[in-house]
Amino acid sequence: MRYYPIYLDVQNRNCLVVGGGSVGARKVSTLLDCGASVTVVSPRINAKLNELSTKATLIIKKKPFQFSDLKDKFLVIGATDNQELNQQIHTEAERLGILCNIADQPEACNFILPSIVKKGDLVIAISTSGKSPAFAKKLRKDFEKQFGNEYAAFLEVMGAIRKKLMVKDHKPEVHKPLFEQLINKGLVEMIKDRRNKDINLLLHEILGEGYIFEELMLSDK
C-alpha cells in the first residue's frame, strides 16, 4: 500500500491553492469547510471563488504564481491546467517540505485527496490510490444513498453521551461496552425511523436515568 491513510487537521493552518478555475474552487471550498486559512493565487478567478471571497479566512491574489507564495504555507494544491507550472509547484514544495497535491497528477503529489461522503460528523474517505477516480466517484454516490442523515444524528447523540459519561468517569474503557450495546441494539435504525419513545427506553435500559434523546440532541449543539 503506497498511501498512508490519515485525516489531516487544517484548522487555522495557512494553505495555498494555485488556480482559480472550477477545480481550484472545489479545493478551496473544502479547505474552508475544514477551518483552513486559504490563499488563492491565479490571474483569473471564477464566479464560485468570487462568491467565497467574502469569507474572512480566504485571501484571493489575482496574479501569476511565484515561489514566494509558498512561504509559511502548511500545504499547497496545484489546480492549474499548466503542467509545467504544476511541476514547478511540486518541485519547490518538495524542496521546502510542504504538503503538496497536484490535481489529476498523483505522481506529482505527496498526498492525494479522497472522494468524500459526509453526513454530519461521519466522514467516509474513498480512495483508489489514484488508479480510478471515476470508480471512487461511483462508490461515493453509492455510499451517499446507503448512509443517510440518521448517521449524523446518531453521532450527535453518541458524542453527547460520551461527554456526559466522561464527567462521571474518565476511563474510556469503562464506557466501551455501553456504546457497543447502543450500536448493536439498533440505535441508528431507531433514529432513522424516528422512534423516539423506543430510543429513550433503550437509553434508560443501558445508561440509566438522565439520558433523554431530545435533550442529548440539543446539548451537542
Short summary:
The chain has helices spanning 22-33, 47-52, 83-96, 133-146, 150-168, 172-184, 187-192, 196-207, 213-219; strands at residues 14-18, 37-41, 58-61, 75-78, 99-102, 115-119, 122-126. It contains 9 helices and 7 strands, in the order βαβαββαβββαααααα.
Please characterize this protein's 3D structure.
The chain has 221 residues and is an alpha/beta fold. It folds into two domains: 14-113, 3-Layer(aba) Sandwich (Rossmann fold), CATH 3.40.50; 150-219, no CATH class. The chain has nine helices and seven strands, in the order βαβαββαβββαααααα. A five-stranded parallel beta sheet has the order 3-2-1-4-5, sandwiched between helices. The protein has a two-stranded antiparallel sheet with strand order 6-7. α5 packs across α9 (213-219). The radius of gyration is 22 Å and the shape is elongated.
